[in-house]
Amino acid sequence: KLFHATADDLRSPKNWHPLGKFLCVKGVVFFTWWQSLGIFFLKANGIIGGLGNWDADEVANGLQDYLICVEMLGFAVAHGITFTEKEYLPAGYGDHADEDGMGRHF
Asked: Which residue from 10, 15, 24, 32 puts its CA 20 to 30 A from 85's CA?
């Protein structure tokens, strides 16, 4: 409901692409929450058990931590695409490349 209530305000006078930003932020929160819930149920049903010197709790926590680290790579790429710096540059900035073709980045 929050997205629908603010979507028009975020599209005018400049389109800030609110849907992509909303999905990126909510994706991190909800994906990791559902994942932790799934790992909890796997551990509770005995599918995730002890391994070596680790008990089931340590294995579940280690698995959760590892998966979050791997997932954050994907979410970082999605955030880099969705939250670009180009939206915040002044109009016309970067339209003309320098003579060496490097633009204004260097």
From this structure: 32
